[in-house]
Amino acid sequence: MDREAALREFRRNLILDGAGKVFAEDGFDRATMRRIAAAAGCTTGAIYPIFSGKEEIYAGLLMRSLDALQQAVSSAFAEAEPGWAKVVGTAHAFLRFYVQRPSELALGLHLFSNGIGQRGLTRSLDADLNEKLWSSLSLIELGLIESGLPESIDPRRETMTLFAALSGTLVSYHTGRLKVFGQTGEEILNRQLELQRAALTHEPHEAD
Fold first, then answer.
1. How far is the CA of 204 from the CAs of 12, 189, 196, 208, in angstroms?
2. How far is CA 172 from the centre of its chain?
3. Phi-psi sector, 30: left (phi>0), alpha (psi -120 to 50), beta
4. Which uninterrupted H or E stretch holds 171?
């Protein structure tokens, strides 16, 4: 049984690797199961016992990416000093992860392609992916809690504020907008962290 499980996992990863190449080259909508099978070095018949279709393959790719993200931010969280330093370290690890992996950022943004409306996955798959993403973002929340926020501050809301800033920074970075205006992702993130900490602690910042 262990050998069968290992072989299935090996085949699963081959299919995901092939699908990642096809999605990057063709986009999700134009990708076909036949092209994915060819890139994975197998037949379409070998895919269906493992994945029911493109949506499930997409979810598998994104879940694997989110697992790697969790490892990156967990390491940064563990290495940082307690309190606000954990917020800073985890946020920068999140930024670095997607700066170095533009295709994985694009993968995550697929659900918002062809317009603003969300699309793509079943409710169950979407819930699983959201839970996996939150397992990384929750470390930012924990850092915020450890930093001694006033009771009136909702750490989850502040976590999502920082997540929104990270998402916008990454899109601006990969579309070249930050470079046009002479900014780096790290500089933008540091400014966001400064402003957010000042607002949370009621400390003055440079703009005051």
1. 52, 18, 11, 6
2. 15
3. alpha
4. helix 155-174
d(CA 14, CA 88): 36
Q: Is the dihedral of CA 136, 140, 141, 142 positive or negative?
A: positive
3-state secondary structure of 149: coil
Task: Give every CB contact of residue 103 below 8 A, 6+ residues apart in sequence.
Answer: 20, 24
Question: Residue 89 has which token pair?
Answer: 């370290």
CB-neighbour burial class of residue 11 (10 A; exposed 0-12, middle 13-18, buried 19+): middle
- What is the full per-residue pLDDT of the chain (208 aa) written as tens digits? 688 889 899 999 999 999 999 988 888 888 999 999 999 999 999 999 999 999 899 999 999 999 999 999 999 999 999 999 999 999 999 999 999 999 899 888 876 554 445 555 788 888 888 999 999 999 999 999 999 888 889 999 999 999 999 999 999 999 999 988 899 999 999 999 999 999 887 654 444 3
